[in-house]
Amino acid sequence: MISAIIRTGSGTKADLHLPSPAIRAHRRVEPDVTGFYDATTGSVQYVVADPVTRRSAIIDPVLDFDPRSGSTRTTSADRLLRYIEAHDLTLEWILDTHPHADHFSAAGYLKDMTGASTAIGERVTEVQKLWKQIYDLPDTFPADGSQWDYLFADGERFTIGEMEARVMLSPGHTLSSVTYAIGNAGFVHDTVFMPDSGTVRADFPGGDARQLWGSIQRILQLPGETRLFTGHDYRPSGRAARWESTVALQKANNLHLKASDEAKFVKLRTERDRSLPMPALILAALQVNLVGGRLPPPEADGRRYLKIPLNAFPHASWGDLEPSLKAEELRGR
Predict the structure, then answer these.
(1) Staple 149 to which of 117, 204, 222, 275, CB 3.0 to 4.6 Å?
(2) What is the per-residue DSSP string for 46-94?
(3) Residue 24 pLDDT > 70
(4) Residue 26 in 3-state DSSP?
């Protein structure tokens, strides 16, 4: 299977960026997009393929993790590999939109399995420096993005087969979030959700509701028929999982955006975020995702260990678990 999907070429950055005139001729080809929904985390992974060359990219792959047992599995990532093999695709890219807080990234595993190039937005270095302090990582920790093969700048262009892709910096949820605009598709991950779910939170370290509004407005300047693929769906009212909308549908129906402006949005987002508990996996996931989806190295006993900083976020909401300070409860009634 690996020989069928391994990326070909010399692997230098110059080989993979600005498309040639011959490639530009196919830049408007509609990409084939297949979403893979992970019910455990509500995340959506994508395989994006050029229908002309059958070359492809994976976006935001998930490494399965059970916090109760501390076990990891590659079931979700292997599903992507089986799909690529079954459809005779060649994998060129493994793309992250940002360091995720609610699941482990499988980018490192997929890199090892296929040799495909990994990439993320260049401002990931700012996120690394921020969380390096929170985790009290040693000075030797490289907060330079070197854990990925490529760091994309805002507006940078690259190719998947003969399709041109463009990177759009989309901060707000995190400092380094990016959108990948590929043909008539935009992979927006944590900016807008499906219209009936609204928008993503903006209260993580480095997050900013005003920046999120600006990022969303930039996305909504894409043509109205642009297909938007979100990174999460939490199935409001128990409906079936969905992950594809359009710019026009988001403008008309998104419950956080319609009939809104910047001030209203920032107020809504800020008030809502105060009530939200931290994601269950954030402290486990980020120390993996800040290094390109790599698990910590084994220690002397052969096991890998995650480091959880206690009381790093003392003012975070506990959600439904918020302890009550009612006098009756304090007296044990």
Answers:
(1) 117
(2) EEEE-TTT-EEEEES-EEEEETTTTEEE-HHHHHHHHHHHHTT-EEEEE
(3) no
(4) coil
| Residue (of 225, 88, 93, 223) closest to 158 by Cα position | 93
Q: Which amino acid is at 177?
A: S
Among 65, 95, 66, smallest CA distance to 80 is for 95
Q: pLDDT tens digits for 29-48?
A: 799 999 999 999 999 999 99
DSSP H/E element including 2: helix 2-5
**325 has a pLDDT exceeding 60:** no
pLDDT confidence of residue 320: 75
DSSP-assigned states of every residue in 215-270: HHHHHTTS-TT-EEEESB---GGGPPP--EEEHHHHHHH-TTTTT--HHHHHHHHH
Compute the average pLDDT of residues 143-156. Answer: 98
DSSP 3-state of 164? strand
Classify residue 129 as exposed, middle or buried by CB count within 10 Å of its CB (0-12, 13-18, 19+).
middle
Residue 322, pLDDT score: 67
Coil/strand/helix, residue 168: strand
Distances (CA, A) of 80 to 57, 143, 216: 10, 29, 29
Assessment of whether the complete model's pTM goes beyond 0.85: yes
Render 289-320 in DSSP notation, one character per residue.
HTTTSPPPPP-TTS-------TTSSTT-B-GG
For 70, the token pair is 């501390």
Contact by Cβ (8 Å): 40, 64: yes
* Residue entry with tokens 């988001």: 250
Which of helix, strand or coil describes residue 171?
coil
Cα 67 from Cα 279, distance rounded (Å) = 12
**DSSP-derived secondary structure for 112-138:** HHH-PEEEEETTHHHHHHHHHHHTT--
Handedness of CA 230, 38, 147, 207 (dihedral sign): positive
Q: How far apart are CA 246 and CA 31, in angstroms?
A: 15
Give the Å distances, CA to CA, from 46 to 95, 186, 222, 323. 10, 12, 20, 39
